[in-house]
Amino acid sequence: MAVGAEKQLELHPVKGFRLGIASAGIKKPGRRDIVVMEVPVDSTIAAVFTRNQFCAAPVVLSKKHLGSGALTRYFLVNTGNANAGTGKQGLQAALDTCAALAERVKVDAESVLPFSTGVIGEPLPVEKIVSALDDAIADLDENHWLEAAHGIMTTDTRPKGHSVVIEHQGKKVTITGISKGSGMIMPNMATMLGYVATDAIVDQNLLQRLLSQINDQSFNRITVDGDTSTNDACMLVATGQSEVEITDLEPAMMDKFVAGLREVMLELAHAIVKDGEGATKFVEVRVERAANTDEALKVAYTIAHSPLVKTALFASDPNWGRILACVGRAGVPDLDVDEVNIWLDEVAIVSQGGRAQSYTEEQGQAVMNKEDILIRVSLNRGQVKDSVWTTDLSHDYVKINAEYRS
User: Fold this and answer.
1) Which of the listed residues 256, 274, 292 is the one where a domain comes to its end?
2) Is 191 a known active-site residue?
3) The pLDDT value given to residue 406
4) From the candidates 191, 198, 228, 239, which is the catalytic residue?
């Protein structure tokens, strides 16, 4: 189950960036669950990782390899096993898979970054992964973005990807990305797994700054269940093979590039929410006229994480008192409740702290019957606004997670 019709993905190749997919049968026989991504030699790379202190072995090793000074040439992704909560054995297992790939493609093991997603606490099946590497390498192709989007899925019901081509004064730049994620979603840095590449030339410091900034407005603004994964990682690669440089010295091209990157990452983030486990609603919670970003997000996440709000959304029940209660318990200091206004889409449900005089149950019901819903809160304390995106909480969410290991 997912919210909205599935889009036909048109994912443009990024010159120099190749992807190969194979089956290791980690969780299900025949399942294509290994993805190898080849990074061109002259690329720049930016990354963000989970802040969960029980971060998975592949996260620890990827950070180490990135910090080693080695030239990153390959990403190795497996699904069906998170290799998290596995201690020193997990680190060695991740290193063994990197070494096996490195040997086959004639690079150092530090040039390979590992990524895993799936069940926590289970030993990584190294032999299965290694046995699939030759097939994944043989499959490497610039046009395999869609296949890779399928290959990184776990409980996802559909692949997630987006692509844009930017044009400016006869110059063209491509940005393409894929992501996976459906449950255990409150990233606190990135998505569960996300890979974005561009053929532009981008300085590494600028690339990292752009990823961090746009990540905060995309993957760091989504939540399905309030759980931050042990394995979150988002990678941004600039291959430079379009020979178009993105620099502050050309602000018009820079603005277009930033807008394109933001579009790709926001689309990927929204796709995760729309495919949230058991989701039937896609909900934006927007808090306006807050004193600062911190209190805007406190209110937004309190609403987005409330089981009472989320179950009301699933039932299409305009029980707006649950939203009101969330605003009051969000921890906003010295909140003047008489200044608070709340809307469902454009329907005023709360005005000056109480039920809006114009509100009718029929109006609220009409909004709650929709798949896409906006919950908008005005605190009347300042000029800051921010949004998070979330889902409802359905029977299927409970069922999927109750049966996740079966």
Assistant:
1) 274
2) yes
3) 63
4) 191
